[in-house]
């Protein structure tokens, strides 16, 4: 009888634990709102789907729609740098990135904008570029950049991971399996 009570307590605890885990997975998304994009290298929260802002470029080699964030379709643009490397990017109003100023107007994929390389604040992986109007000074404050309606970031799709997808990659310890 005691064994039966212990087993039922263990089962109820496991059920509660799994529900709490599921709620925890979605808690960080709901705090910021929208679906979250993570750095593929370290898992740092980079951007929210609420920050999507499509900026079209005539210099894109190709454009296509894909479900990069959650269920919504996002326009991806394909660009090539002067060294022949190609990047599929999405554009957003803002993202949690370290910007390496000063901005450079040469070889910009968005005419009228200067760019600066942008990296993950945690692991320093190159995630994309931040763009500001070319008539701005080469270096601006982070606050000025984030508050402006004229600025945006282009993130490399292959360097990102959806938070919801990352949550499915977690390994469940054997003791929790049935």
Automatic annotation (TrEMBL):
Top-rank lineage group of the source organism: Eukaryota
Signal peptide: 1-20
Limits of the CULT domain: 34-164
Keywords of the record: Signal
CDD domains from the UniProt entry: CRBN_C_like
Protein name from the UniProt record: Protein cereblon
Lineage: Eukaryota, Metazoa, Chordata, Craniata, Vertebrata
């Amino acid at each position: 009888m005691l064994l039966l009570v212990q087993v039922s307590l263990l089962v109820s605890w496991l059920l509660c634990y799994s529900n709490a885990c599921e709620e925890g997975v979605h808690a960080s998304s709901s705090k910021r709102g929208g679906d979250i994009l993570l750095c593929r290298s370290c898992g740092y929260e980079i951007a929210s789907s609420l920050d999507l802002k499509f900026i079209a470029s005539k210099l894109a080699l190709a454009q296509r729609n894909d479900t990069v964030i959650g269920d919504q379709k996002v326009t991806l643009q394909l660009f090539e740098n002067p060294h022949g490397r190609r990047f599929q990017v999405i554009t957003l109003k803002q993202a949690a990135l370290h910007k390496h100023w000063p901005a450079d107007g040469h070889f910009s994929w968005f005419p009228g904008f200067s760019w600066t390389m942008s990296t993950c604040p945690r692991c320093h992986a190159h995630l994309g570029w931040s763009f500001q109007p070319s008539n701005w000074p080469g270096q601006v404050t982070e606050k000025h950049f984030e508050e402006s309606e004229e600025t945006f970031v282009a993130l490399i799709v292959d360097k990102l991971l959806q938070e919801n997808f990352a949550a499915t990659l977690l390994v469940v310890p054997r003791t929790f399996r049935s």
